[in-house]
Amino acid sequence: AVADGYRTGEDLIRVADDEGTQIAVEFTDSDGEGFFDPSLGEVRQGAFQWSIDILSALFEKSYAGETIVVEAAMDPLGGNTLGQAGATTIHRDFGGASIADTWYVAPLANHLAGRDLNGGTAEISATFSSDANWYYGTDANPGNQYDFVTVILHEVAHGLGFLDLLQQDGS
After folding, report:
1. Which residues of the chain have pLDDT under 70?
2. What is the mean pLDDT of the chain?
3. Nearest CA to 75 among 113, 45, 30?
4. Residue 46: in which H helix or E strand, if any?
């Protein structure tokens, strides 16, 4: 739909039905820390799954069994870094690629190719700060804490290909 010359959100985001792309999470922390912390692990995992469920609903699968695997951990990141994530592999010139000689992050490449191009390797790797003052709720009301759900959505989106890559041309 178009309103006052602008496309509405309905045109820009297509919500998947029950056949949406599955996003699976593999928590890689050691026992007793991060996502397996005895006091916070369960609530951290719950917030992560909440975020993944939001993202999964946005993408329709292009082939049977299409699954995006996200490896996630919590570690001290130092400074002002709340999280970092990216695709684990990139691909180009595969069958189904929209543009020749163009690199695609693994989740998008797999989707366009209609098959898993990186085999048993997770598509996305993500690390979140274990030092941040996190709010783990799912009601978008973090007060003066960092909203864990929002940061997960942001970082995993980078792994899905929402990023920019710039190269200085020397001029």
Report:
1. 1-19, 170-171
2. 88
3. 30
4. helix 41-56
